[in-house]
Design a protein that fits this description.
It is a single chain. About 55% of the residues lie in helices and about 20% in strands. It is of the alpha+beta class. It has 3 domains: about 5-150, Beta-Lactamase (2-Layer Sandwich), CATH 3.30.450; about 190-280, Helix Hairpins (Orthogonal Bundle); about 285-435, Histidine kinase-like ATPase, C-terminal domain (Heat Shock Protein 90, 2-Layer Sandwich), CATH 3.30.565. The strands form 3 sheets. Strands 1, 2, 3, 4, 5 and 6 form a 6-stranded mixed beta sheet that branches. The protein has a 5-stranded mixed beta sheet with strand order 8-10-11-13-12, with helices on one face. Strand 4 and strand 5 (about 105-120) form a beta hairpin. Helix 3 runs antiparallel to helix 8 (about 150-240) and helix 8 (about 150-240) runs antiparallel to helix 9 (about 250-280). The protein is rod-shaped and about 145 Å long.
Length: about 450
Amino acid sequence: MSESQTGLRLKDILDLDAFRRIAEGYAELDGLGITLFDLDGERVVQVGPSRLPLCEWLNTRAVGAGRCKSQLAELASTRPAPGSRGSCTCFTGYQYRVVPVEYDGANIGRLAFGPMLEGERRDSLPPPVVELCADAGDRDLAHRADHKARRHAEIDHAVDRISRALSSLIGAAWVRNLASRVHTERSRDTYAELEQQNRRLEEMVARLSELDRMKSSFLQTISHELRTPLTSVIGYAEMLIEGLAGPLGAEQQEYVRTILGKGEQLLGLINALIEFSKAEAGAVSLSRGNLELGAVVRDVLDQLRSEIRKKRIEVRVASPLPRAFADREKLRKALEHILGNAVKFTPEGGQIEVGGEESETEVRLRVVDTGIGIPKDAAARIFEPFFQADATSTREYGGAGIGLSIAKRFLEVQEGRVAVESAVGRGSTFFVYLPRGR
């Protein structure tokens, strides 16, 4: 494996402080300077007696400092072959042992040990050192120069110990690095997958929005187209009942009244569809002000009076009801559907009670009925468009399942909301919340 194949850099992954502490212990034990170079020759750790008194003296001289700098550059660039150990000899005659730092067959740095004298023990200094001392005219300098030679086996033993410690640290660092890379790759793949899913979702949302717009447009168009001829049907039926086209027999009048009733029922459904399509399209304008809820409730109940009387429903309205800050027309439409729903699903002889209370910021209107009730699992969905809690009830009571969704929309556009509590066979309670009157 070549150096470029790993992408591994010592100074990026190795815990340098941990290695420095270990190296300091070995340097003190063996009396050796230890320097760790990164693959590009950058010195990342240096501990121990890296400079002898002779070196200190040389660096006080311009010529000596320049030669020492060049010598260190040569040491940093020394690259032993993988699996071997090299050396670098200073111009002073001292040596450095250079060991490649490898991992998984790749060279990722170098360890340098020294300066020192290698070989059998001797009491004399290398000739270059003797000459330098003579030139300096400093007899003490020669005595302060290190002339203790270290046997090759002794040096090899020290090098092996520190190399094994470094290999252990690099192995742990490589595992961390590999885990980090795997995590990064997985995160990158996950992010790419999420981006792709987001693009698909955006396309689906755009498509659904277009389909929703087309649906609303279709409902509004078809409703208008149906209402025009239906209005004529109802008008002609009324004229027949009034005898404008001649007298009708009792049976004929009954048939025409059936036509008229069904026509009005269908017209109500079409009007509800038009309201729903406008609400869905956001075509709702507001004109809010302070309202007496009691007056709006009584207005709606007057419209439902015929059905209330027909089913002999007892209706009680608390007085007075609180004031609300709302749009009268939109609130009336919402209450038409909520109170109409209560009348529709309350059996003959049942009861409907309307009450209310207020807090510092809002008012709450209660519509309580003794109707058939709503199953618990359906109560949370009855405000969804076209949702029917019970198909059997739908066939019995009629309706398209959009009245409550229209009420919800008309309340929300004026900072209101609606909720329900219900139990099958025990009736329902609808709560209408609105901003308090100002």
